[in-house]
Each structure stands twice: as C-alpha cells, then as structure tokens.
Design a protein that fits this description.
This protein has 193 residues and is mainly α. 52% of the residues lie in helices and 3% in strands. The protein contains 8 helices and 2 strands.
C-alpha cells in the first residue's frame, strides 16, 4: 500500500462512516482518532499484506465491499447502516486506546522481524480482545449499537472461539453475512493462500 492509496481509502472510509446517519459520535471518533485509524495495520505479521499502515482501513473497506456483494447476489436483506457499522468498526479496537496509545508497536527485535513479526502489542494499555476493545472504543464515543450489531462485533473474532460458543445457533443475517465477508477479505489479504 502506498501513501496515495491510504489517503484515498481514508477519504472513502470517512465518507461511508459519516453516512451512517443513525450513529451519533462517529464524527467525534473520526476527528479524535483519525490519525490512529490511518496508521493502524490490520495484522502484525508479514504473511498478511495488510500488516502495514493503512491496513485497518483497507481491511474494513474490503469487508464492506464483500458484504454488499454477497447480500446483493444472494438477496439477503439487512439494514444497510447496520452492515456499514459492523464492517467499518468491527476492528476499530486495533487502534488501541482512544487517548492515543496505539495497540500495535513496531517490532524492535530483529530476531522477531526476521521471522515475520512486524509489530508487537503495547503492554501499556489494558489487555482486551480486539472485538472487546472495538466495543470499548465505540462506547467511548457514545456510539450506540443495535443488539445484532453489538453481537456481530463481539463475535467478529470467529464463531469457533470459546468465548463465542454461547452465540452459536443464534446468528442473525447480519452476523452470518459479516462472517462470510470477513472470510472473503482474509482470502485476499493473506499471502500464499
């Protein structure tokens, strides 16, 4: 990803996020955390080409693109604002703390870098899963979620995880559509798949 793509993707991301009319607080989030969002990678390892500044924005836009395409091709009807909300903000927690402390820090160890780990995790912020941190960031800006949006973001780390087992069998159209889109995005982003 080059700087011009990051800038273009940020413009698209902002426009889409601000078009979610039912969500107050989005503008405040973008204004306060915009730089964090722009520089945040999506992954920490070099086997993902989104492990670079701008990776989070690119990934979020890609998930939304796939979600819209799957919904259209299969005639699955979901609230478009809910779809945009979960796709654009499911991993917003990867920015770190809304106060400006990043979650990802550049890996300083040459041994780890040689083995593909480009980033390490910031030990100076509260330990949380990415989905839980995303919900924390959203609530920090007063962004209220509908129940299915909340559960979709909370379980966005994967339906097979132990902490998400309770929600098995209760998936909504929104969460199922999101999971399909997330999988399609991962297939594009992972090197050597």
């Amino acid at each position: 990803m080059n700087v011009s793509n990051i800038e273009k993707n940020w413009e698209i991301y902002q426009k889409l996020a601000l078009s979610i009319g039912s969500k107050t607080g989005v503008k405040d989030l973008l204004d306060k955390c915009g730089e964090q969002i722009i520089i945040t990678p999506y992954k920490d390892r070099d086997d993902w080409w989104t492990a670079a500044p701008g990776g989070l924005i690119y990934h979020s836009l890609l998930v939304l693109k796939h979600a819209k395409n799957v919904a259209k091709s299969s005639a699955i009807e979901v609230n478009p604002e809910s779809l945009a909300t979960v796709c654009l903000f499911h991993d917003i927690g990867k920015i770190g703390d809304p106060s400006g402390k990043p979650y990802f820090l550049e890996q300083e160890s040459s041994w780890h870098r040689e083995r593909g780990q480009l980033y390490t995790y910031n030990p100076n912020i509260q330990k949380m899963t990415f989905p839980h941190r995303s919900l924390y960031v959203l609530q920090s800006f007063g962004i209220a979620l509908e129940p299915d949006e909340f559960v979709t973001i909370m379980t966005s780390g994967g339906q097979g995880l132990e902490e998400n087992r309770f929600y098995g069998g209760g998936e909504t159209k929104l969460s199922m559509l999101f999971n399909i889109a997330q999988t399609l995005a991962a297939m594009e982003e992972k090197r050597n798949i």
